Amino acid sequence: MSALVTLDDIRAAAERIRGIAVYTPLVQCSGLGLKCENFQPMGAFKFRGAVNMLAQLSPEALAAGVITFSSGNHGQALALAAQRIGTRAVVVMPETAPTVKVDGVKRYGAEVIFAGTTSLHRKARADAEVAAHGLTMVPPFDHPWIIAGAGTIGLEIVEQCPDVSDVYVPVGGGGLTSGVAAAVKALKPRVRVIGVEPVGAPKMTTAREAGHPVTLEKTSSIADGLLAVRPGDLTFAHVQALVDDIVTVDDRAIASAIGWLFREAKLVAEPSGATSVAGALKRGGSLPSGAVAVISGGNVSAADYVGYLREE
User: Which of 256, 272, 276, 296 does the annotation list as catalytic?
Assistant: First the structure.
């Protein structure tokens, strides 16, 4: 098993991304702290990991161009990071990717290739492009540089909320959860880190029950950014070692969380970004003092957003 990302790794990442990625606000709303990663330049936390990784690539690797496989937000993050340093970017996206995310990738100058509907389909096509054209792979979650970039969120949470007690994090492939847990547990071991994933995409829940990463036959949820069919090997190792609990929420709860954020905090979150809030609200009653939820992204079309508000 590869070594877990350290606090020093995350602090180094924070220095690399300083002035490029946004030090996002943590706002209090009805007893819940909200870490607003929807305020990143391309609307999601993924920008942190993409910037951290590109900053460490060799000139030769950058000159070859970069590629990733993504349901949307990591693709947009890589496209914007590549645009800013002037290198070519290719993003392999699912055929079912939301138009708002496809348009975002293209707006930042990246080439889009569509491949299948699952993360495995996208990865296979991206690997083929690497072999054929010599592009440099920038994985969406299962890489220490990506995890360390996401971990900078954990550093900020502890700085902004010294009395933090619980941190709720959306779970896709596990990069965000891994990074946040690595930072928070290193600084405040007693803080509980809770991953939240859709009922229709319980990849980390299933993996923890099995004791190893498991590939699901299919996933389904309105939280399109959390539909990986398999957690990463490295992210699973982090979750097993550092995360206190994984809970699941259904689509109705996610839509309700989107509405709660709109009404109570005046924040726009995509379904994936609101999943952490759905997990926090699932507790019922009053939240513990110091509870924080990471709003991982806000990339959602106006039409879909209105639809979610009507559903909740």
Answer: 296
